[in-house]
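Rather than argue in generalities, we have chosen a single entry, letters for residues, whole numbers for local backbone shapes, without further comment.
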Amino acid sequence: MQGLKTIAIVSLASATMAACANLDQDAPTVSSTPDTTQTPNVASTPVEPAFFVDWTQEPIDSRWYVSNHNTNRGQWESDWRNKNVVALPNGLNLRMTAKSPTAGEWPWAAGEIQYRQRLGFGEYQMIVRAAEGSGLHSGFFTYTGPYYNTEHNEIDVSFVGKSPYEVQLNAFAGDLEAGVMKYPLDFDTTKNFALYSFIWAPDRITWYVNGEFAHEITDENFAIPQTPSILFANVYQARNKNWVGEPDFQDGATASYRCMSYRPLGDTTTRTCADAYDSYVAEE
């Protein structure tokens, strides 16, 4: 992955900060496992088309499923509503909105999209500004599990509301968890757009922030996921307050995505979010 120059709004985390990044092996499990009771059917075999989406120019099309259902179990304290997923004119906005709950519903609605095709080894990139407020999770991840007749596999890039100066990186393979890597940043993820990415290979997963190395796990110490998975992006109120903090956020809190891209390993020609870095990460 190419290096990227520093620009005014986003300064790269320093080498000193990278050296002291915390691999929190004692943190509670924070899997972004989706509520698959309402997940759409997807291709049962991997279909790995590269894609590049400019959310400031493109509407949501048939490649994406927008979640729209209640969550009565799991790690969420919000339901999903498709009205909270809005693309154009300034990006893909995933919002939190208050609602009057009926029996069995949460008082908050969240936003989530899912890529309909399974994706496998390759380079995943997003330019995102996380939602602001304690109690919220936002980010993107790959996931597959029992609902798809596979073991639980997952690769995470997460932002938690109580810690806006870090990004959390993690992976799961079956019953194993790599361990939450809390990577410190010298900018506020809720105020600035930045490029977050990972390269998923058969023997390793490597994460980057603004083109700078952040973290890596290899098959020497972890069972790297091998099963093609579904790509998710979402924002929601989480049940685990030790993880995300006590709820303290505004109606309309939004995670904004300006770019998403994926290309399989070996593809060096498909456009990625890194190629458009300067035009997407810009002062507002």
Summary: The chain has one domain: 49-270. The first helix runs from residue 15 to 19. DSSP finds three helices and 19 strands in the chain.
